[in-house]
Amino acid sequence: MLDLTGKNALVTGIANNRSIAWGIAQQLHKAGANLGITYLPDDRGKMEKKVAELVEPLNPSLFVPCNVQNDEQIQATFDTIKDKWGKLDILIHCLAFANKDDLSGDFSSTSRPGFNQALEISTYSLVQLSGAAKPLMRDGGSIVTLTYLGGDRVVPNYNVMGIAKAGLEMSVRYLASEMGGQNIRVNAISAGPIRTLASSAVGGILDMIHHVEEIAPLRRTVTQLEVGNAAAFLCSDLASGITGQILYVDAGYEIMGM
Ligand SMILES: NC(=O)c1ccc[n+]([C@@H]2O[C@H](COP(=O)([O-])OP(=O)(O)OC[C@H]3O[C@@H](n4cnc5c(N)ncnc54)[C@H](O)[C@@H]3O)[C@@H](O)[C@H]2O)c1
């Protein structure tokens, strides 16, 4: 029943084979989606090469640079989608950034530039990419972003990223309300802690994972592919009645009080 054949899906946020976006891309591909992949370009083209090699087996029909702090690259990404695909069905927003210094210690020490940068990359980008996707989602669509419990409750060291995720979760609701009339659904997956490039910047991430392994109902944390399965579900017709929601894929950790 989970069939994404004929759907065009843009996946952002793949940096390496540990990325949650990589788990999502694999499961969307498995479900039959036609993939477009963006990568964060760097001066030496290292990321382009690395991501291109990784995603090759998934035969993406689009592969474009997209730094979400760069308006021209965002415009070019969606112009390319319009030219090559004509329409977009699925947008996966799976990226975030905060300075390592702002992911430990006192939250009140967060600098103004650090705060603004974290919110710009991790929160505003969902708003901007969704706005650019909207006119291309002519047959309706599904937008999925990634959040974490630290946007709803205090998690030690998550600090400014918690504020970014709180804003992201509220953005999901405002976007869902705006776009529902066009049959565009907008949801977030709140994933349990997973070791990735981004999460390694959060102070004490391994302790967080071990804590979840002890406390969560399933006595473990989750994998990138499990998050990918939930994303594929949310992007499919099986989830046609679901929008504006935060779906916890965290081995049940969120229900626990102690
Ligand atoms: N790993 C976890 O424990 C966990 C848990 C819950 C939610 N998340 C969320 O999942 C998402 C993916 O993170 P991940 O853990 O897979 O780490 P990751 O490091 O693999 O992915 C983060 C991605 O963000 C991209 N990025 C950073 N700045 C960018 C910019 N300016 N423009 C475009 N892309 C940019 C990076 O290139 C990278 O691909 C993030 O939103 C993260 O907050 C992660």
From TrEMBL:
Descriptive protein name: Enoyl-[acyl-carrier-protein] reductase [NADH]
CDD domains for the chain: ENR_SDR
Broadest EC class assigned to this enzyme: oxidoreductase
One Gene Ontology term from the biological process aspect of the record: fatty acid biosynthetic process
GO MF, any single term: enoyl-[acyl-carrier-protein] reductase (NADH) activity
EC number assigned by the record: 1.3.1.9
UniProt keyword list: Fatty acid biosynthesis, Fatty acid metabolism, Lipid biosynthesis, Lipid metabolism, NAD, Oxidoreductase
InterPro entries the UniProt entry points to: Enoyl-ACP_Rdtase_NADH (IPR014358), NAD(P)-bd_dom_sf (IPR036291), SDR_fam (IPR002347)
PANTHER family referenced in this protein's UniProt entry, alphabetically: ENOYL-[ACYL-CARRIER-PROTEIN] REDUCTASE, ENOYL-[ACYL-CARRIER-PROTEIN] REDUCTASE [NADH], CHLOROPLASTIC
Chain sites annotated for binding substrate: A98
Pathway this chain belongs to: Lipid metabolism; fatty acid biosynthesis
Native organism: Aliterella atlantica CENA595
Lineage: superkingdom: Bacteria
Active site residues of this protein: Y148 (proton acceptor), Y158 (proton acceptor)
Lipid biosynthesis among keywords: yes
Classification via NCBIfam families: PRK07370.1
Family affiliation: Belongs to the short-chain dehydrogenases/reductases (SDR) family. FabI subfamily.
Keyword DNA-binding included in the entry's annotation: no
Residues holding NAD(+): G13, S19, I20, L95, K165, I194, R195, T196, L197, A198
Catalytic activities: a 2,3-saturated acyl-[ACP] + NAD(+) = a (2E)-enoyl-[ACP] + NADH + H(+)
